[in-house]
Amino acid sequence: MLKQSVNNSLNELVHLLGELTNEEFSKSCATLSNSSIGEHTRHIIEMFQCLQNNYDSGMVNYDNRLRNPQIQTDTQFAILQIEQIQNVVDKSDKKMFLQQIIDGEELQIETNYYRELLYNLEHCIHHQALIKVGVLQTCKIILNANFGVARSTIEYRQQCAQ
Length: 162
Description:
Helix content is 56%, strand content 14%. It contains 6 helices and 5 strands.
């Protein structure tokens, strides 16, 4: 179920990217503190890539992720990166460690692949909500009402409507 939810969110993003021109994708948006839809998309992609690239070692540090500016300016390249993530996301759960340096102190916290995949899904949805703001302000594209909305919120709204 988790992997399917990840793929569903990434598919929503792919669909949106297919609707945007590279200019719309990379244009700064004042409402997003002058960041672009592309920058938020790059951030989503690179967080997933960081987890996938560090699966074998079992040590993930999201601050040390690779940053590729082409992802934030080229919709087709971004779509290709998303498709590559979708091709490798179906991995077995395993123990991992999350590494972070906070105020000069290194922390290593025990976690697991599924927990980090869930974190990336929630992180993706959060940034999709920001992307939605940018799209509504700068583009003439109609988004699915649930784009950038947490699954729990969607389910709650469905329960209230009954």
